[in-house]
Model the fold of this input.
Amino acid sequence: EDQVTQSPEALRLQEGESSSLNCSYTVSGLRGLFWYRQDPGKGPEFLFTLYSAGEEKEKERLKATLTKKESFLHITAPKPEDSATYLCAVQAGLTGGGNKLTFGTGTQLKVEL
Amino acid sequence: NAGVTQTPKFQVLKTGQSMTLQCAQDMNHEYMSWYRQDPGMGLRLIHYSVGAGITDQGEVPNGYNVSRSTTEDFPLRLLSAAPSQTSVYFCASSYSQGSNQPQHFGDGTRLSIL
Done:
């Protein structure tokens, strides 16, 4: 059974204080690992897809990395507008379930002035 | 470009009532799916469709029905609402079955069953 565990559950940072969010996973044949951002009252918003170990993707202050067991979302010099819940999800190989995503429970990030 | 549109945004039902949650996408995506999000749990797949006329069950399908008569629309029906179905429901779409392109989500329907 595919599993995704995210840590920490919640993180409070000062503006400019860099940190990393962790996503550990077990999956039968990784087809893709996805990072989403979710704001209160909204649906998940796509950030990155990572396909293989060693891959990195960047977008503004965010950088996602992938190993064979985990992914990190690095946030450099965060701003208050980066406050959100960050979700990690994995998509397994074609063993049924269509394009099913298995999600973690998320990391709630709060960036303060 | 609206993306994935869900209606209604909020709904309160009594136990035993039925209702349909609407989902429409304007991206010509073949693959559509429904997830529910509950506190302390990750989003869980309810049903999915790989194209018009084709649907299949996900992880938590009991108590829900779906149909896909057009590419654009994928409604979710609650047959006889139960308090355990109180949740936030998200519809998502992506390019095609087997694609590892990202799924795009709507803003959800917040459903309370009394």
Summary: The mean pLDDT of chain B is 94. The first strand of chain B starts at residue 4 and ends at 7. Chain B touches chain A through 30 residues (CB under 8 Å).
